[in-house]
Specification:
heterodimer, A: mainly alpha, 3 helices, B: mainly alpha, two-stranded antiparallel ribbon, 9 helices, 51% helix, extended, disordered N terminus, disordered C terminus
Chain lengths: 99, 285
């Protein structure tokens, strides 16, 4: 049991989040997968901060959390306004910009 | 370099208690992530993600970042996930994924790519950080504790980023308000008199029966019973699948009244269709 375990766990969580973004088509669930990826990167930052013995990595993770909060607010508002016009939260129905 | 030198004499192995915490909570975090991706219902996905985030919060605390652990639990599981659940409840249960693939083989390709990526990154990290020292913070050697250390850095070296963050939060709040706001034309809003007149022009001026009235259960998924024992189909909310699928589509019901979507509002300024008329409005199932 070393710090490597945390890093490998974070890598696996990141991968699961990325696969979720690729596979799922509900916009809200895709958004949750993005949140999972941000969280796994935070775990990496905290682990490296511990390895280096400084709190700079923790501050970086803190800023990631702040930006994630702002991103969630705006993204969910966008999803709601899309749902209001299309009556659907699936990303397949949002294809007006395709052509 | 003194920190690194002090850290170097500690071995790379972590304590037993931390290993126990890791091997209990790590699989739980993994199961939460997998459950989020695999569960069909979006609400279940959100709850699985809450599990993962709580485990990660405990990991932060274990890795001597108690401030981040508290922020993780308060902000992520407390605020962000509640916001997700709130939007899910507004959008409704209809938003669950369909099983049909639009791009053929997309799921298989995505999963294979993911497994390859995990193998690549995981193996690379495992090799590169094999003998990384466990390190730790010199708080028992006269250094600052976690929260004062973060505060000291945050308000000196990262002060500009901290200030810019406040601008970001304000912008996000204003943006969310702009995006979620419904602009109605003045005068397009029906008065109560108009609405009650439209209601009395239909064949059903009274209120709809509540679910579960005179039925065996009081669940909202159980239709009320009419005096002759038939289930009253219009007593169910539209977002809930009725017990018998053959009852759909219902000609009169809350679907036409639009009650689940009334909280969301609509963009078209036209007044809502007259309730009770079959075939008017209500395309979503």
């Amino acid at each position: 049991m070393t710090l490597t375990n945390y890093l490998v766990l974070a890598a696996i969580l990141f991968t699961i989040g990325a696969v979720g973004v690729l596979v799922r088509r509900n916009a809200i669930v895709m958004f949750m997968c993005v949140e999972l990826m941000l969280n796994s990167v935070n775990l990496t930052l905290v682990t490296f901060a511990r390895a280096s013995g400084t709190v700079d990595g923790q501050i970086m993770a803190f800023f990631v959390m702040v930006v994630a909060a702002a991103e969630v607010v705006v993204g969910l508002a966008i999803i709601m306004s899309i749902y209001r016009t299309r009556r659907s939260a699936s990303v397949d129905d949002v294809n007006l910009l395709k052509y | 370099m003194s920190v690194l030198a002090a850290a170097a004499d500690t071995s790379a192995q972590l304590g037993t208690g931390e290993a126990v915490v890791f091997w209990i909570l790590g699989p739980i975090a993994l199961a939460g992530a997998l459950g989020m991706v695999l569960s069909r219902n979006a609400v279940h996905s959100a709850l699985w993600l809450v599990t993962t985030m709580l485990s990660l919060g405990v990991f932060y605390v274990v890795q001597s970042a108690p401030f981040l652990g508290a922020v993780q639990i308060i902000v992520y599981t407390g605020a962000i996930m509640i916001l997700f659940l709130f939007v899910l409840m507004l959008v409704g249960r209809d938003s669950s994924d369909s099983v049909v693939e639009t791009l053929r083989g997309q799921r298989v390709a995505g999963t294979l790519l993911g497994i390859g990526f995990a193998g690549l990154v995981g193996a690379g990290i495992a090799r590169a950080t094999q003998d990384i020292p466990a390190g730790g913070f010199p708080d028992d050697r006269g250094g600052l504790a976690n929260v004062p250390a973060i505060a000291e850095l945050l308000f000196t070296r990262y002060l500009l980023a901290f200030e810019v963050t406040s601008a970001l939060l304000i912008t996000a709040a204003v943006g969310a308000m702009v995006l979620a706001h419904i602009e109605r034309e003045p005068g397009s809003r029906q008065s109560q008199k108009d609405r009650s007149r439209a209601r009395f022009l239909t064949d059903r001026p009274q209120t709809l029966p509540g679910p579960g009235v005179f039925a065996r259960g009081n669940s909202v998924a159980k239709p009320a019973l009419l005096p002759d024992g038939r289930p009253a189909e219009d007593s169910l909310a539209t977002a809930i699948e009725p017990a018998e699928v053959e009852q759909m589509p219902r000609p009169t019901g809350r679907e036409q009244l639009g009650s689940p979507d009334a909280a969301l509002g609509t963009l078209d300024p036209a007044p809502s269709p007259i309730p009770g008329r079959p075939g008017s409005g209500g395309t979503h199932r």
